[in-house]
Each structure stands twice: as structure tokens, then as C-alpha cells.
Amino acid sequence: MGIPYSTTTFINNPITIVLTASTGIKEVVWKKMETYEKPTWKTKFRSWLNECWRVLRVTKKPGTVEFQTIVKVSGLGIVVIGCRGYGNVRIIPFILVNGYYHIEGNIHPTIFGENIFHLTTRFTLLELTDLNKPILKRVNMEAPGTYHHSMLLGNLVDAVATEVGADALKARVMAYYHDVGKIFKPEYYVENQEGDLNPHEKITPQMSSLILLSHVKDGVELAKEEKLPDLVMDAIKQHHGTTVMAFFYQKALETDSHSSVNKDDFRYPGPKPTSKEAAILMLSDTVEPACRSLKDPTPTSIRNTVVKLVDGRAREGQLDNSGLTLNDLAAIKEKFISILTGMYHKRIAYPGQEKDKESK
Ligand SMILES: [Fe+2]
Ligand SMILES: [Fe+2]
Questions:
Q1: Average model confidence (pLDDT) for the chain?
Q2: With a threshold of 0.85, does the pTM exceed it?
């Protein structure tokens, strides 16, 4: 009867071998296993490759950690205990160990380790994409325009991040939560406004800028309350970088008769994006609404808008700390253009629609 493959994988992996070399535990385990079926060199080599790939895969993801090592070290003890069975029933502990190791042993230490070391694992990222999370449902109910914008951005950043080798899942999570602070005053954000009602018309540009700035501050507070990970906190703080609210700044200049307008009063506090994913989020958050608001969204006008805005952000120095290269920027622009052209190109009117238009 053969030993389950995952058990041989566990025993053969480089970390276990290094940790047990001095104690001789591995020899004890192998001796017990010899009574069943000795794995061939082919099997051993395959399990080594498998483990090396897993270690490499984890280390390639900045900011995300898996606790396989902890699980394996603790699991080793269980395997040794399992080997102490007698007769034909000796295989049963191995089966139990496999079940424990691959289900319980992976999840519980991971959650435990995340809380202790403030790390974000793939499990947590996947959990954060659950649209049934109360905070996302709240955004959907209280600021439906913002919710739709965030979901749309999630798809956009995912595609763009994949294009430049950034972490698509991280970028998607960041997009889902970047504007959660808007739920406190949703009517002040254009995506939530109905008809021609715009409350900014009744207040000064300075007051408008203060309200817009508050969605970052409120978002951070909300993320703390909801115990959302640092990754989400970064998305909220960094998605506007240190940019200036140009519209309200210009409006203030036009109405200012005493030359008392200070540009920094209209500037987001930042910091600038510190990762590729945060930078992609910032760029997506800039180009998507701009292309949506184009009066004549042709492939040329979309291309011009994307190029102008992305180059503008780069020239302002907003992407300096993000790690994006010029090659990345070129690839990002092309991806934006292809996706946004597909989304916002002009459609041919259905039969009867032209007539309706004329009769109005
Ligand atoms: Fe925002
Ligand atoms: Fe946004």
C-alpha cells in the first residue's frame, strides 16, 4: 500500500530536511515508511520541484506571506506520532495527518500568523473580494455610484496589473475599497449625483475641497474600525497621491479678488503611491472617469485623454515611488486605451432611436 503522495511531499521538502537533519527524526520516519512502499527517485524529485516552486511562488509576491513553513514544522511532529502505529492500521494516521495538514493545518496557523505579524495572505485577499462583506454592501446601499465605480475599477486594475506583472488580486482588492470614505457624504461625489443636482454649486470651492479631502480621512477611519489590512489602508491614502483638485482650485482662482488662494489647500495629503498596484489604481481612477465623461468618445479622443492624463501624473512625480518603469507606463497606456475604447466607444443608434431624438 502506498504512502499518500502529499505525505512524501511533506517529508521530502527542503525546509523539513534542514530542520530535522540534526535530530535524525527524518531517518526514523523513513524507516517506518519503508515497511509500506519506498518512493522512487522520480517521486522524490517531483516533490522537491513542487516544494521549490511553492517557496518561489510565495517569495515572488511582495507583501503577502503563506505560513506553509510553520505548518510543516508543526505537522512534522504529527507525522512522527502517526508513524508509531502498529500493523495494518498504521496507514490510518497518515490519512488523518494529510487531512489535518492540508485543511486545518493550512488555515488556522495562517489566520493566527496574520493577526500576530500583521501580514496579508492570499486567503485574506480572496476573502476581501467577497461582495457580501458588510462594508461593501453598505457602500452599495449608501453610495451606489461609488460602488459601481469601484467594481469597474476592480476589473480595470486587474487587467492592467496582469499586463505589467503586478499583483492583480491585490490591485483588485485595493480598487474595491479605495473610496469607502465616500459613504459619509455621497451626494458630493459626481458618480452619486442625480440629474442636475450638484450641492457644490451652493458652497465655496474651499469648502468643496475640504469635503472631498474628507473621503480619504473618513476612509482610513472606517478601514481601522473594520480592521481592514494595511494594503487597503494604503489604497485609501495613496489613490490620490499629492494631486491638486484642479477643478475647485481653478474655480477658487476665478472668484478670488484678494489673491489669497493657496494651492496646497486643494492638495490631497498623500503619500504618493508606494507600490505598482497603488499606482495602477491611481491611474485607473484618473482615466476611467475622464473617459466616461467624454462628450464624443471616439478611439482617438480616448487615446488622447489616456496619454495626456497618464503622462501628466508621471510628470507631476506622482509615480516616483511606485516602481513603475517607462516600459510599464507604455504598456499600461495601451491596455487602458484598448479596454476603455471597448467600454465607452460610440454605439450605433437602434432603429427608432434617431426618430425619438428628432421628435424631442
Ligand atoms: Fe477617491
Ligand atoms: Fe475613485
A1: 79
A2: no
